[in-house]
């Protein structure tokens, strides 16, 4: 079977990510157990409730499987919102989960649900025309170090960063019409997308 991109399907907005991947010409795998990672060049960890996702990852033994796959350099990860919290090496006020990227993340950095907002921005290297980014009870990246590179900041807070294997974003591209970040991640995984 040819490699594709998986979407962690334990909780959260996985269906929306799957729909965006299909619009980019990728038929996703909805990942619920470690065996399904074998056919994935990349895995999207969606927004949702990070504490719940953390428990489910451990319960399904996906946490160790994901770490092992990344360490063997055959899996790329994109964590959006809650997924970014799960991927970070450091989480303000709590223990980290997967510790895949040299970044410190803080929950709800922009405020409560009522403080949710959108922005239309150009993100160099990802999109050269303005794309709509949706922030809902979004975490923020307090600092990055080591091999981690800055991709985007909003309101003086880092909201997108990456290393060679991991991409983390505070926002939800799956909740807008933008497909630029999905296309960017597809390319990061060594796959090809169609123009959307």
Describe the structure.
The protein contains 5 helices and 12 strands.
Q: Summary?
A:
The chain is α/β, with parallel strands linked by helices.
Number of strands: 12
Strand order of the largest sheet: 2-1-3-4-12-11-10
Order of helices and strands: EHEEHHEHEEEEEEEEH
**What is the number of helical segments per DSSP (H or I, 4+ residues)?**
5
Q: How is the main sheet built?
A: 7 strands, mixed
Identify the quaternary structure here.
single chain
Stretches where pLDDT falls below 50 for ≥5 residues?
Answer: none
Layout of helices and strands:
Elements: E1 4-8, H1 14-23, E2 29-31, E3 40-45, H2 50-59, H3 62-71, E4 76-80, H4 82-87, E5 88-91, E6 101-106, E7 117-123, E8 127-135, E9 140-144, E10 149-154, E11 157-162, E12 166-169, H5 180-188
Parallel strand pairs: 1-2, 1-3, 3-4, 4-12, 5-6
Antiparallel strand pairs: 6-9, 7-8, 10-11, 11-12
How would you describe this structure in keywords?
single chain; 196 residues; alpha/beta; seven-stranded mixed β-sheet; three-stranded mixed β-sheet
